[in-house]
Design goal:
Number of helices: 16
Structural class: mainly alpha
Radius of gyration: 21 Å
Largest sheet: none
Helix content: over 70%
Order of helices and strands: HHHHHHHHHHHHHHHH
Shape: globular
Number of strands: 0
Length: 490
């Protein structure tokens, strides 16, 4: 089989298609891995750098804050200047910042390096998915995205395992250093195998004003939501940041309606399917992020697990994501995404509810494993259809910005959950170092997360629509649903 179809796009299953998939998975994988691998290292970092739970929250949120704030800019730059180019710049940036994290002598310097690292992730993350959307022929995109989701989900799930092993054999600093050789391999593959693509319809100057306003709005909103529960919602800094976010957000919408070449074409929000998929993304990823932030700490502090053992505890999720996500994507392409996007979060919610048993049952076989297995099955059902649906509702020329919006929504949900869930469950200050208090808070937190995730499943069932039966006529190039039936709804 030729690597390229008649229109110059990649055919799934060919050698070049596999290399392109490998490069994009490795690139997005280091960003995903770093977002989860740090979780298992938090207790060790806290003890080594002698810091409290607030600083540990900021080790997670500093990275996600800058990632969320700059994602739209990263997606827009890729669409306009070349997705491979911006993806490669992001990989280099991420690797350099990872080395700085590994060398950080204090909690403050580590938090600062993590913030810089998030900017690199914002440049590479939307590009990885947009490259697939632009490079594969329409009938193979669902398959490619399913494989990308499965292997990318594997990176997420493998994070705790990798982090635990690195801490066991060396130091938490290797949690960051491991990114450097992976980035080098990613760059080599990208340079050799990934084709360049961009939105050829984008003309005029880059929307610098929109980029600045988007960064200000997202930064102000997320900072205010993070600090609100601890400083108090009437604290002047919190009020100022939230007020600035509202003002910048309003100015951003006005500007994007008026500027000739907007960074975020507001027309993509005309799709109800796109809005529904992103709303579901926000709710589900908030639940996942809040629970997974606390789980490794609960296992280590209250359950007596070593860092390596707490990573191994999530190994079933890794296996289920590896073998289940691609078939899930193919099934969704055949029957439509609604069933899996409705049922998947409910299964995840059941898994989270079962994980509450870890607070009272230290046995892995009865206290942890049942929840982990159910949780993994739910993720495998949900991730590929959710991603493909979100991408499919946007015009192909805007795949970079559509990916950025979907990633931004997921990161914002996670940020808010990490900021709000621990204090809501009574986990503040040095509570995370006291087993009994931590377990009580953990049980409350995962049950809240389960309820939120279940609400995401209900939301998807009510709002996601399956595409109509495909016809034998190809979709015109300008059609917003140019692609497999699965994506026609995101």
């Amino acid at each position: 089989m030729a690597d390229l179809a008649g229109d110059g796009l990649l055919v799934a299953g060919t050698a070049q298609a596999r290399w392109v998939l490998a490069a994009t998975v490795l690139g997005s994988g280091i960003a995903s891995l770093d977002a989860t691998v740090v979780g298992v290292a938090l207790p060790t970092i806290g003890r080594d750098l002698r810091t409290g739970v607030a600083s540990l929250q900021w080790l997670v949120t500093a990275y996600t804050l800058t990632l969320a704030a700059f994602l739209l800019l990263g997606g827009a730059l890729g669409d306009r200047l070349g997705r491979r180019r911006i993806f490669s710049i992001g990989v280099v940036w991420f690797a350099v910042a990872s080395a700085a994290c590994a060398a950080a002598p204090t909690a403050g310097s580590l938090i600062a390096a993590r913030a810089v690292q998030g900017v690199g992730a914002a440049l590479l993350t939307p590009g990885s998915l947009a490259i697939l959307q632009a490079s594969f022929r329409s009938e193979d995109r669902a398959r490619a995205i399913g494989a990308w989701s499965g292997l990318g989900g594997l990176a997420n799930a493998a994070g705790p395992l990798v982090g635990g092993e690195l801490i066991a054999v060396s130091s938490w600093r290797w949690v960051f250093l491991i990114n450097v050789p992976i980035a080098a391999v990613t760059l080599a593959l990208t340079s050799r195998h990934v084709p360049e693509s961009r939105d050829e319809s984008a003309t005029g100057r880059l929307d610098v004003g929109g980029a600045v306003l988007a960064v200000c709005a997202l930064t102000g909103l997320i900072y205010g939501l993070i600090e609100g529960p601890t400083r108090g919602w009437t604290d002047p800094v919190v009020v100022i940041m939230l007020g600035a976010a509202v003002a910048a957000g309003g100015a951003f919408v006005v500007l994007e309606r008026r500027v000739g070449s907007p960074m975020l074409p507001l027309g993509i929000f005309a799709s109800r399917q796109f809005n529904a998929a992103n709303a579901t993304t926000f709710v589900v990823y908030a639940a996942l992020s809040g629970a997974l932030f606390l789980l490794p700490t609960e296992l280590q502090v209250a359950g007596g697990y070593s860092p390596a053992a707490s990573g191994l505890a999530l190994l079933p999720v890794t296996a289920i994501m590896l073998f289940g996500s691609a078939p899930s994507g193919r099934l969704s392409a055949r029957i439509g995404p609604r069933l899996q996007m409705g049922a998947g979060p409910l299964i995840v919610a059941a898994g989270l509810a079962l994980l509450s048993r870890a607070a009272t049952d230290a046995s892995y076989a009865t206290g942890v494993l049942p929840g982990v297995v159910v949780f993994g099955v739910g993720l495998a059902c949900t991730v590929a259809p959710l991603t493909a649906t979100a991408m499919g509702a946007a015009p192909p020329g805007h795949s970079g910005i559509a990916s950025a919006v979907n990633n931004d929504v997921a990161r914002a949900g996670g940020l808010i959950a990490v900021a709000v869930l621990p204090p809501l469950a009574g986990i503040t200050g040095s509570t995370y170092l006291h087993a009994r208090a931590l377990s009580a808070g953990f049980r409350t937190a995962v049950l809240v997360a389960a309820g939120v995730c279940a609400a995401g499943g209900v939301l998807a069932a009510l709002t996601i629509r399956n595409p109509g039966r495909p016809t034998n006529e190809p979709c015109p190039p300008h059609c917003a649903t140019d692609g497999p039936p699965l994506r026609a709804g995101t």
